[in-house]
Batch of 2 targets.
Target 1
Amino acid sequence: MNFALVLGSGGARGFAHIGVLKVLEDYGLKPSLIVGTSIGSIIGGLYALNPDARAMALKAGSFVKNKDYLKLLSMGFKQQALLSSAKVKNVLKALFGDKTFRDCEIPFKAIATNLQTGREKVLDKGLLSIATLASSSVPGLLPPTIINEELLVDGALVNPLPIDIAVKQGFKNVIAVDLTPVFRLNKKRLKTYEILISSLNILIKSLTMQTLKRFENKASIKIIQPFMLTEHAHNMLRFDKGLEMMDLGVRAAKKMLSYLA
């Protein structure tokens, strides 16, 4: 099947993308295009460069077990940590090196937001490490990334699940991974970062639904929603739950693909 794979935003919930990729490989499904926003751009870029989900899963497992995610933080979770820009840049540089979009085995596009115009920016040229950083620069967590004099931030602000980009490229079959969680806010007193994250989740869900309504009749779109399988609202900063979230991706992908068999 000729299809495009769309990987949505969601911070640490992006571990679920790796689980989905493992299942797609098991079914012999290889995308002809990958489009990713935020964490979806990082996972998508890595897979486009080297399509080996099991190798990715092993590295992700070590990342969690060795608590390497703590290297991304300026403080620990208990201190309401924000991500360290320099540390995130170093991690992305280590992951991608000097590879560019031209080095990708599978065509790949990353989505960012131009902070000055509020418009979507599709990135498909230049260094993968810089493009994925721009696509993942969540306002309040990371500073904007400058590319060709454009001030770019997280693509989730305008297009958290960029199905439209795949459809506009001519794809009639699209598999999209939506990382939107089930909303479970029962506390009356919320910390600042919890308010920020919850607000982003609401924005992402709204934008995703708008995109689906616009393009549902223009292509066959299959949605995988790992976090609709659990009552627990996984925090986008809980990298320590990565293995659990990867498993949710496996389960959700198997559930969706079982309907296609």
Target 2
Amino acid sequence: MTHPPAALPPRPIASPCVMVCTIDGASGLCLGCLRTLQEIATWSRMTDEARAAVMAELDGRRTRIDPALRGA
């Protein structure tokens, strides 16, 4: 008797979330992770490549947030 192969456990999804979930109205970015609401909402359904592209943009987005809000 053969059994179907066991399903692999779900792969963890890397996320830039730091549990500081506050959206800056001027930039539309989360003050914690620097993602847009659209990116946050679709993160778990995005491809690895799409998530990697967003991750690569995050440092550059920091300048779009008012320094007073960034704690800088």
